[in-house]
Amino acid sequence: MRAVTLGNQGLRVSRQGLGCMGMSDFYGVFDDTESIATIHRALDLGVTLLDTADMYGPYTNERLVGTAVADRRDQVVIATKFGIVRDPANPAARGVNGRPEYVRASADASLARLGVDHIDLYYQHRVDPNVPIEETVGAMAELVTAGKVRYLGLSEAAPATIRRAHATAPISALQTEYSLWSRELEAEILPTLRELGIGLVAYSPLGRGFLTGTLRSQADVGPDDFRMTLPRMQGENLETNLGLLAEIEKLATDKGVTPAQLALAWVHRQGDDVVPIPGTKRRRYLEDNVAAAELSLTEAEAAHLATLAASVAGDRYLDASTIDR
Predict the structure, then answer these.
(1) pTM recorded for the entire structure
(2) Among this protein's residues, is 56 annotated catalytic?
């Protein structure tokens, strides 16, 4: 898989990354052996960007990723995140913390869990509305100076916040949900990134699995899978979105590819400054996803997909209070 550059600071990553969250949290049952084998297979296929966060688990996903790459550190770009606070004793409770002392403590803890001496890409997972972004990013920049972090990122940040952060220290990447059915960032955020020379890392490029065609009802996931709590996965919204999925599946069949490959190819088509990180915990789905990086769509196919996706029903989150506006 070819490499691309995110931002103007020299960060080179594979054209497609691997989201590791579902290996340890949120999406049903977990199998560490298969997850580690999936990470190894990703590296064998040329996927270098691995995405994790301290809150996944919480804390267990970083350890898993660290174990998987312990003997392959020079092959990977490790991206992790801080800022969403979870209590292992009560994982459902959430908070946001962007205070400088928390930034420093979180980085040291992540380094220890990952078993590495530096983090390649360090994101603020959510913007703390009670701490000026300049203070948070200033502390992140100190980590770069100290050699603990190489490049800086934000996640789910608004254009004004991105500008203020980038004026404080160079931001290489913004991580935000982006897919056929999550295109809100195209109006203001993506133009801001391109003006400033910041790359986009697209999480959930497969609509949290919905665009693969394997997630149609509660029966398709475990009882603790949080996806079925999302507005798009419930009631009339789900019925509307299943109609959208049927059209995507038809197009995929006509093209001789899977729905997942079609959806990923659409994201890839948005530019080399957009790097999707589809998540999976199984090798067979990883290989399907990786093949999408070589799939081309015609103008007519891409336009038709975009038109279909305009009819998506429901919000991205049940509670979007932590999304920067």
Answers:
(1) 0.93
(2) yes
